[in-house]
Amino acid sequence: MYYSEISPRLSGSDLMTPLNIGFILCGRTGRADHPVCRYGPVSNDAAGLLDCVVGCRHAVLAGNDGGHCAGESSRRKTDCVVLFLSNYCSTSIHLRQLDWAGCRPGCWVDWYCGRGGRDPIVEEEAGVMKQSMALVLTVVLSIGLSGCGGPEENKAKYRLRAQEYFQQGNFPKARVALRNVLKIDPKDVEAYFLYAQVEEKERNWRNAVAGYQQVVELSPDHDRALVKLAKYYLEARALEEATQTANRILAKNPVHVPAQALKIAVTAVSGRLNEAIGQAERLIATAPTETDAVLLIASLYTANQRGEEALPLLRQALESKPGNLELLDALATTLIKQGHMDEAGSTLQQIIALEPTVLNHRLRQAAFYDHQQQFDKAEAVLKEAIRLDPENETRRLALVEYVAKRRGLEPAETALLDAHKDLPRSAKIWFAVGGLYESTQRTDKARETYRAIQKEYQKKP
Fold it and tell me: Which residues make Cβ contacts (< 8 Å) with residue 265, sequence separation at least 6?
C-alpha cells in the first residue's frame, strides 16, 4: 500500500480513492458526505423507510410513506442487502446477510448491491449452489467410482484454485474458492490473508481490514497482516494504533523494514517531515530495494517538492522487482506529478498488462487520458473494459458517467439505454435509467421506470 496520507493518490477523476478509514475504526468518524454513506445518519423514524426492497428508493425520494418497504416478509424478497453500521466496532463480514441488522439513531446505512442488484457474496454463493445442484449426479457417481478426497486434499485443491483466480484477476471466483477453504478449515490463516488481499484488490476496504484482523486473531505474530493493519491505521490518522502495531512487530524483529518504515511515516504525518526524511534516507541506505522503504522515501521526497529525486530510487527498485504493482503505481503517480507524461502513460500500460482484468487500472488510465484532454482515448479505454467483461454493470455505468461528463446527456442516455438493453436484469442500470429521468425532470418516465422495477422484483421469492 502506498503511503497516501503523506503523498496523496492520483486525484481528480480517479474514482477509486480509498475511503476515510476512520469509518472502520469503531466509529471514529462517520461522514455522511462520503460515498459509502449513501443516506447519512438515520433516525428511528426513518429506519423503517430505508429497506432495500425494490421500489422503496423511489418512495423515499418522493417523500412517500414507504410503508410497503417495512416488514420481514418484504425484506426477504429483496435482491439487495441493506447494512446498518452502528457506532461500535462491527465488521461487515458479520453483517453481510439477508437478515435485518437493525438500526439506532446515529448509525449509517450502506448498500451492498452487486451485479444485477445482488449482493456479490450472496450472488456467488447462489452460483455455487446452482452449480452444485446441476452437478450433483456427477458428484455422486464420481464418489462411487473413485472415492472421496479427504479434507486436506480438498482444501489444497480450493486453495490452488483461489491462488490461480487471484493471479488471473478473477477476484469473485477467488473469493468463492477461499470460502470453500474456510468451510473445511475455519482457522486457515493464509486463506484469511488471501481473502483480505482479494477484498483489498476490489477496494472493499472494510472487508480487507476485517480479514487482516481475523488473521491477527488467529496468528498474533503474523507480520504481513500487522503491517497491512498498521497502514490502514496510518491512513486513518490513528497514529497511536499504527505505532503500537509497528512496535509489536519490531519487538520480535528489530530490523523489520516495513515496520521501521511505518514508524517513520508516523513521524512525517505528525508534522516532522524533515526528521522523517533523514530517518528514511538512513533506512533506504541499508535496504535500497525493499519495497516499503522505497515507497516511503518516494512519498516523503514528493511531499517535500523533491519528486525528481524519488524517480531514480523507484526505477532502481523496479529493476530488481519489475512486476511490483506498488512500485509501478508509485512511479506512475510521481511521474504524473513531475510532468513526465509519456513515461507515466507507458507505466500505466505496464500495470494493465500485469493485471488486464482489473477495472481500477483502466479507470485510472482513462482518468490519465482525460487529464491530457485525450477524450477519445479515455472513452476507448472504458469501452475496452466493457469488451473484456460485457456482463459487468460497473463498467457500463463508468462509461455512461464519462460520456455524460464529456459528450452530454443525450449520448449518455443512449449509452445507458444500450446498457439496459444488454443487461435487462441489472437493477443498478435500471435504477440509473430512472435516476436519469429524474435528473432531467421527466417525472412520468421516472415513475414508469420505478414501477416497472417494482413489478419485476415483486415476483421474486
Answer: 3, 5, 6, 234, 242, 276, 296, 299
